Amino acid sequence: MPVLNRIAEFGPEMAGWRRHLHAHPELGFDCHQTAAFIAERLREIGVDEIHEGIGQTGIVAIVNGQGAGPTIGLRADMDALPIEETTGKPYASTVPGKMHACGHDGHVAMLLGAAKYLAETRRFSGRVALIFQPAEEDGGGGLAMVEDGMMDRFGIGEVYGIHNSPNTEFGHFYTSPGALMAAVDTVWVRLTGKGGHGATPHETVDPIPAAIGMIGALQTVVSRNLNPIQELVISVTQIHAGTASNIIPEGAWFCATVRSFTPEVRELAKRRIHEIVEGHAAAYGVTAEIEYDWGYPPTVNHPEQAAFAAQVAREVSGDAAVFPDAPKEMGAEDFSYMLEARPGAYLFMGTGPGAGLHHSMFDFNDEAAPVGASFFARLVERALPL
Fold first, then answer.
1. CA distance 229 to 160
2. Please, how many CA atoms are within 13 Å of residue 375, restricted to the half-sphere of its CB?
3. pLDDT digit string, tens, across residues 335-350
4. In terms of domains, do 82 and 210 share one?
5. Which residues sit opposite 187 in a β-bridge?
6. How far is residue 23's CA from residue 98's CA, in Å, rounded to a whole number?
């Protein structure tokens, strides 16, 4: 695999950066120590500009090439997850209840590795904007950085990102033109009835049968309201009610995640969920409060940039290891906001066998960092040739 030789040389340094971040995870926008560590590494690397506090705790660093040209944005997310780590590794999380279970520590290491190579060689024209983003897992840090004027402020013309993919063959890349990942919306339904003794249900208005009826009927949105060739997932992921075996509760609530790819399907799902919940509430005699949260939009690659990124990936991993027309995934990504603001593409990179994403045993494969860094560096040199 033609990892750039210079990047391979400081692979151990990248592993050290990654393991430090792994041991000190931070959540959401609260990435102050993470951002400070990244900024210190960038100063050591010798980038030309470091701009901190973008989108609360995000960083944009600039590396200038040789001569005038456009600006390419490269993005890494840097937040962790609220999971108790069980890997037992020497560099395991030192923060109870928090860990890097999605590989964002590895993403940062890859982008820092690319930064070191690009600042050292500068075999490109124009500029590179290195984007270190907080709050991908929850909070929409990508949107926060875009709304903070990042794209216009730094003249970013195109933007690219990578996510690691455990249990995908090591060094393989996959992406797709158009929609790659879904939009994600979340709905909370809170039901209020009349509580009482379990022995006298006729004196109560039981919210539990109402919740059960609603949850069952929600499955018909996909099976009976949607064109079968379109994609939609509605998964009820939480149900809460009751405190004891002989008490009919006053209230109940449930939560669902809604995944789709088009505005039309997204609107259909919201409308039907409201109709089903409100209709069942009337039928069962309960009141229903619906909170519908519009989440991340679909991650939609721009075809020209997706094809270009796939070609760069072939230079790193070879033709047989790149899949440019991968099927869509129902996961979501707030890199979608950056792709709404500028042309670009998002790719997945295989890191070999291991625990899956968001698992307490997950650990990023440090051998993959030079591959990702080589992809980023080669992309810049191909997009901004001297």
1. 30
2. 33
3. 999 999 999 999 999 9
4. no
5. 256, 292
6. 10
